[in-house]
Design a protein that fits this description.
By secondary structure, the chain is an alpha/beta fold. The chain is built from nine helices and ten strands. The chain has one domain: 3-Layer(aba) Sandwich (Rossmann fold), CATH 3.40.50.300. The strands form two sheets. The protein has a six-stranded mixed sheet with strand order 6-7-8-3-9-10, sandwiched between helices. Keywords: Amino-acid transport, ATP-binding, Nucleotide-binding, Transport.
């Protein structure tokens, strides 16, 4: 279980997170929604160690992560798929996947076949440079790279952004499979309401750096929830 308690985060004088508390449980998909600029990506940066909290704490399976570097959090089992994918465009698909070896023991440094079962296109393009892939294929590669690290929780920042509908369905099937077959915890930041409604077990809605709604996915259709999502 991932636990965030009373998290506050600043960029200089600007406060991005205001007393955020949430949990992401093993074997469940937890979705964080909200309009642009409400602090969703800042929350994930705090969880993965990309930006330090001003106060509050983050813990995973009882281990306090406060002050721990991003690579240390990867070793604890946090796999991160950043917004914009951030693959290495001049490296091949194979080399991008192998970059996920960094937190692994030598005996674990191989690409699991499960990744190619989830995303067969990656297997057919192992020798192609990452920058030559389509946006959807790059997103699949970014997820595959995170899975190479053998994560216990997969943290995804808007994986459907700019992706064609057919690949969105593939990504949704992969996320559902990971939850159901491996018991992995999934923390998903998203703006695509239907995607979250179909996948999520539990949802949080953020507005102005705070959690303003929490509940089951079915509660997304309640007026109280929708008022924080409409533009």
């Amino acid at each position: 279980m991932l636990t965030v308690e009373n998290a506050n985060l600043h960029y200089g004088a600007a406060q991005a997170l205001r007393g955020i508390s949430l949990t992401a449980e093993t074997g469940r998909i937890t979705c964080v929604l909200g309009r642009n600029g409400v602090g969703k990506s800042s929350l994930l940066r705090a969880i993965t160690g990309q930006h330090p909290l001003s106060s509050g704490s983050v813990a995973f399976n009882g281990v306090k992560l406060d002050g721990m570097a991003p690579y240390g959090r990867a070793r604890e089992g946090i796999g991160y798929v950043p917004q914009g994918r951030e693959i290495f465009p001049l490296l091949t698909v194979r080399e991008n996947l192998e970059s996920g070896y960094a937190p692994l023991k030598r005996s674990e440094r191989f690409i699991p076949n499960e990744i190619f079962s989830l995303f067969p296109v990656l297997h057919t393009m192992l020798g192609r440079r990452g920058g030559d892939l389509s946006g959807g294929q790059q997103q699949q590669l970014a997820i595959g790279r995170a899975l190479v690290t053998r994560p216990k929780i997969l943290v995804l920042d808007e994986p459907t952004e700019g992706i064609q509908p057919s690949i969105i369905k593939d990504i949704g099937r992969a996320i559902r499979y990971l939850r159901d077959s491996t018991g992995m915890a999934i923390l998903l930041v998203e703006q695509y309401l239907d995607f979250c409604r179909e996948l999520a077990d539990h949802v949080y809605i953020m507005d102005r750096g705070s959690i303003v709604h929490e509940g089951a996915a079915a509660t997304l259709d309640e007026p109280e929830a929708r008022q924080h999502l409409t533009v």
